[in-house]
Amino acid sequence: AKHYKMPAGELEKTVERYNEFVKKGKDEDFDKPIKLTDGLTISQAPFYAMRGAPKLHHTMGGVKINTKAQVLNIDDEPIKGLYAAGEITGGTHGASRLGSCAILDCLTFGMIAGENI
Q1: What would the DSSP string read from start to end of the chain?
Q2: pTM, to two decimals
Q3: Which of 3, 27, 29, 67 has the most CB atoms lying inside 10 A of its own CB?
Q4: Is the dihedral of CA 114, 56, 48, 31 positive or negative?
Q5: Positive or negative CA dihedral for 106, 111, 115, 117?
């Protein structure tokens, strides 16, 4: 709390509330079930924290295609013989996707890998 200039008392209340949700098996703020196997209380040190913010970490997109998967030129005309699919094309996320969920996964498993090396 001190490092991130957060009120320590409020952080403690938030952690206590979260731990109660885990014990109850339900996040009451979001009406989301927490399975006993998934929910871990924040109760045993050491503790790690990070400030998260949406970041570009995974590009999805590039060339524009039509419904036939033909790559389109700047005039939206198919380029003869050129097709594309997957993350090289624009899709549901457009040219790129903002995310932050995978960042914690990357950092956590990076730390675990480092500890095990």
Answers
A1: -TTTT--HHHHHHHHHHHHHHHHHTEETTTTEE--TTT---S-SS---------EEEEE---B-B-TT-EEE-TTS-EEEEEE--GGGB-BTTBTEEEE-HHHHHHHHHHHHHHHH-
A2: 0.47
A3: 27
A4: negative
A5: positive
